[in-house]
Every structure is written in structure tokens, then in C-alpha cells.
Amino acid sequence: MIFPHNKKQKNRTLAALLLPGLIIIFFVFAVPILYSIYLSLLNFSRGVADPSFVGLDNYFHLFRDDAFWHSIRLTLYFVVWAVAIEIVLGLLIALLLNEKFWGVKLLRVLLLLPWAIPWVVNGIMWRWIYNPHFGPLNRLLRQFGFITRNINWLGEPARAMRMMILADVWKETSFIALLFLAGLQTIPEDYYEVAKIEGANILQRFYHITLPAIKPVLFVALSLRTIWAFKSFDLVYALTQGGPSRGTNLINFHIYQVTFRSLNFSYGATLSLILTLIILIITVIYYQVMIKEAE
Amino acid sequence: MTSHKMKKIAFKVVLYLAALLLLLYLVLPFLWMIISSISLERELISTARWLPEEPQYARFINIFREEAFFREAFINSIIVTSFSTAITLFVGILAAYAAARFNFKGKQGLLIGVLLTQMLPGATIIIPIYLFMGRLGMRDTRIGLLIVYVGFILPVVIWILKNYFITIPVEIEEAAIIDGANTAQILIKIMIPLVVPAIFATGLFSLITVWNEFFFALILTSIHSRTVPVAATQFSTMGGVDYSMMATAGVIGAIVPITIAFIFRDLIIEGLTAGWSK
Are A21 and B177 an interchain contact pair (Cβ–Cβ within 8 Å)? Predict the structure, then answer.
């Protein structure tokens, strides 16, 4: 709709409403993105006294950069496993909390606990839980007789990665369960009753009633979590610092190291733009699938 | 007993077992942080017992008294979080109202742009901002961090508030226009009162997001303006980790968003699900 009806007055009102926000977004997003692109065409880094234009050299370098590809592979592994586990576990938790039983209200509140904890505190917390000498994980396992010697949970690359995924799952599953639960609560209860009377078994009921109701939420959860998991940083920083032997060096942490520890600003900007591109492509694919499904 | 009844009992048993498992899953990790925060350091590294002999509640006060950098970080966090939320809400309400009620050129592009900002890795904007702020002398200042946070959450805030504004029937405003009200009056007297719960929920979301933010704070701040998440990591990266102090700092960092989430759970859940699902 359009109002006020006077065009000049409308423009003035619109400017007053939009300009403050636009100016902020312009300076915090638009200018930095353009400057990042500009940076990626320079050789601005520590040890270069007078940065100069190098064309697409940084982008060519990317293809020969083993550290970059290594961290992309690690990130893909992390994203696929973390998001898959979170979706399945989140759905199971939501199905449980959609039932009526004593204490369900309390559990729904406690579900917010992992979600609310700062990511970096989550990392500190799990680092302490995994501590090989004094951590409660080793202590518990020893007390119950599962192990006789302490395990160095973060001491070996592949295991550290699995432990990092577990720490991520603990925190992020909550959000997904919350979304699913909201979707489930839109299903009228008599749907299930009718299906039961007509002889549908539990799998059929899940497939024909539950799944359609949570499908829109599923896409939102899947795409948001994938995007966020690609950008994981705090957890890596607090839990492993990318180690051991770069075994948990996810791409966003790698970019941080290149930029702010090696002080290679141009190459850091190049990597961050490539990461942007990857996330953008994934989002577009999700969006296409979602539109197709909706039809 | 009929098999139907047996089935029902079996279902209940499974249900309560699952509920118990979920309870342990949700609570145990953070409970260990709390236990660590009130234990003596030597109790933690002796591993002989699980609970402290004498809970050290005083540590929650001592950490502010003895660790000046943590006290300052706490103050920084409160200032940066509250101001950036207030500014974002003010600017966000204006823009969201425009997006909900006006047609203008490039509106669709603008809204897509708002969503694009959420996909952007923080590094893409923070590398130039770090360099700019170095030039302007704004690195390691509260105002510098505050500006970045306002920009960072503004797109989401506009998006969520816009979704609330469009649920309000236009007829109310049309009646007000006929009565001669201008846009400012419509916003203040009619629209804002109608979406107060939504604004409140969005504000809480923003408070939690900014309070928890780590990446930008790590890069832009150091001794003068670091926030609680940054200060909390310093207990574990300092030479010779003090596990109990580290846990105390972590608990303090987490207790603020957890409290907000527990008190306003319904609002937050509604805001989360409504905001993201549209």
C-alpha cells in the first residue's frame, strides 16, 4: 500500500524512516565487502612495505594452497556430520517433548539452556570436560569401568574433530528441537486419532502427518544450521585452536589465522570472499530445492 | 493384562527413560561448570570426589574484586550490549515499518540484501573494519565495537519486526490518516503499542546475541574494551590455567543469557520460531 498519498511527502517520510538503517548497513556491510574485494587484488600483508596491485594472484594461489583445501575438507566433514546429527537428534527431542508427561514443561524450559550459553563458553566448558587428567568424562568412564586409562580426547586429530562435533551438537540441537517442536504443535491431535482408527501404524502416521507438518521448518533448520556451521569459529578457538596438527582447523578459523596471526590481510580477504561464495551457492541450492518441494 | 495395556505401560517406561536421558544431556555439562566454579582448585585436580567439601560461593564476588580485567570486561559487556540493543531497536523499528507499509524502488532487493548479510562470514566485513578502525583510532574502543554490533544485528531485527508489522491490519492506520495523523504519530501512538511484545522479544534476542558475540570482539578489542566472552577465554589461555576461576568466568558469562532465556522463554521461543520461519 502507499500512503501518505502526496508523493513528495511520501518520499520525505520514507527517507526519514529508511535512511538511518541504510547508512548503518552501508558502512558496516557494503563498504567493507567492496573493500574486501579490493584488498583481495592487492598484496597487502606483513613485510610488504608498499602494497601493490597483483590482479588475481591471490585467487590463483588458492588452488595451490594445501592448507586451504585441507581446511575446506575438514569444514565439509564437520558441517555434514554436525548438521545431520543435530537434525535427527533435534527431531527426536521435539517428538519426545511433544508428548504429555510429568515434567515435560520443565524439560521444554531446560531445552533453552544449551541454546543460551555463549558459543565460546561452550568451547571452554567442553575443553574442561575433555581434560585428559582432571576432566569429568574420563573420571565417569573410569568409575563405571569402561576405561582403565585416561583418554586424551583432544590429543589426536580425527578424535579431536569428533569431540568438537559432539560439543557443537550439544549446543545447537536445542535450536533445531525448538523449531521442530513449534512445527509439531501446529498438528491437531485428532489427526493422529483418526489415522489410528483407520489403522495407520506409527511409521505411516509419522510419514503422512508429522513429516508434512515439519517440512517447512526442516528446510529452515537445515539451511540456517548449515550456514552457521560453515562459519564456526568460537568453538574452534576455545576448544582446540585448530589443533592438534591442524586437525580441527575449520575454514573460518583458518581465515582468522591467515589474517590476524600471519597478518596477510589480502589473502585473508580472498579466503573470506571464497567462503562467502561457497555459503551463497549452498543457500541458493537449498532455496531451489525448497521452492520445488513447495510446488 | 491385555496386550494393549502392556503396550501402554511399555510406552510410558520408554517415554520416562528418554525424558531422564534428555534431562541429564541438557543439564550435566553445565552443572559440571557450576560445580567447578564453587570448588577449590585442589579439589578439582585431586579427582577424589565430585562435589566440593565447602562450596566457594565467594568466588563469584572475588572474581570481580581480584581480577580487574574481568570486572572491566563485565562493565564493557553491559554497556555495549544495552546500547547496541537500544539503538538497533530504534533504527530497526523505523526501517521495518517502512518495509512493511511502503512500496519503493528496490524494496525486494533490499530485503534480499538483508538476508544475504546473514550468510556473510564475519571475516569478510571485519578485515576492512579492523583496518579502517585502526586508521580512525577506533580499535579497542567501546564505540567501535558498538557500531559493528548495531550493523551486525540490524538486518535480522528489521526482518523480524517487519514480519510482525505486516500482521497488523492496515485499516487502523487508514482511519488514523483520515483523522489527520502523520507517520510519526501513527508509529508512536498506534503501531508501536500494538507490537510491544514483538519489540520486547526482538530486544531480548538482540541482547543475547550481542552478549554472546565473540568473533568481532576478539578482533576489535583488547585491554580497553574487551567483553566477557573475550575475558573468559583469557582464563584458559593464560599460562597455568586456574580451572576454578575459568569455570567461574564461564558461568558468569553464561548466566546472563540463560536467565533472560528462562524468564522470557515463551517470548523468545515465539520470536525465534516466528522470526526464522517466515
Answer: no
Q: How far is A272 from chain B (nearest CA, A)?
A: 5
Contact A21 B33 (CB under 8 A): no
**Interatomic CA distance for residues A44 and B67, integer angstroms:** 38
Fill in the amino acid letter for A237.
Y
* Reported ipTM: 0.91
Return the C-alpha cell found at A199: 489403522
* Residue A186 near residue A177 (C-beta atoms within 8 A): no
For residue A37, the model assigns a pLDDT of 96
Q: Point out the residues of chain A with pLDDT beneath 50.
A: 1-2
Do the chains contact at A233 and B122, CB–CB below 8 Å?
yes
CA–CA separation, A128 vs B244, rounded Å? 10
**Would an 8 Å CB–CB cutoff place A256 in contact with chain B?**
yes
C-alpha cell read off for A277? 561464495
Q: Chain B contact for A20, CB < 8 A?
A: yes
Mutation target for B interface from A68, A79, A112: give the one with most B CBs within 10 A.
Answer: A112
Contact B125 A33 (CB under 8 A): yes
Residue of B nearest to A16 (CA): B94
Q: A95 at the B interface (CB within 8 A)?
A: no
**B20 in A contact zone (CB under 8 Å):** no
Which cell numbers hold the place of A268? 585473508
pLDDT: which is higher, A294 or B256: B256
For residue range B102-113, what is the model confidence (pLDDT) as tens digits? 888 888 887 788
Question: Cβ contact (<8 Å) for A117 and B257?
Answer: yes
Domain locations along chain B: 3-37, 63-277
Dig out the grid coordinates for B133 from the structure. Answer: 578502525
Give the helix/strand (H/E) hosting B87.
helix B68-101
**Confidence at residue A1, expressed as pLDDT on a 0 to 100 scale:** 47
Phi then psi for residue A57, to 5 deg, are -50, -45
Q: Does A276 touch chain B (CB under 8 A)?
A: yes
**Rounded distance between C-alpha atoms, residue A233 and residue B214, angstroms:** 9
Superfamily of domain B63-277: MetI-like (1.10.3720.10)
Contacts of B246 in chain A (CB under 8 A): 124, 128
Q: How far does chain B reach from its first CA to its final CA, in angstroms?
A: 49
For residue A42, the SS3 value is strand
Give yes or no for A285 touching B (CB within 8 A): no
3-class secondary structure, A295: coil
Asked if A154 and A240 touch (Cβ cutoff 8 Å), the reply is yes
Q: What is the pLDDT of residues B191-219, one digit of tens each?
A: 888 889 889 989 998 999 999 999 999 99
Q: What are A85-127's pLDDT values in tens digits?
A: 999 999 999 999 998 899 999 999 999 999 999 999 999 999 9
Question: CA–CA separation, A138 vs A254, rounded Å?
Answer: 30
* Domains by residue range for chain A, with CATH: 66-294 (1.10.3720.10)
Residue with cell 589480502: A266
Angle at A275 between CA B131 and CA B132, to 5 degrees: 10
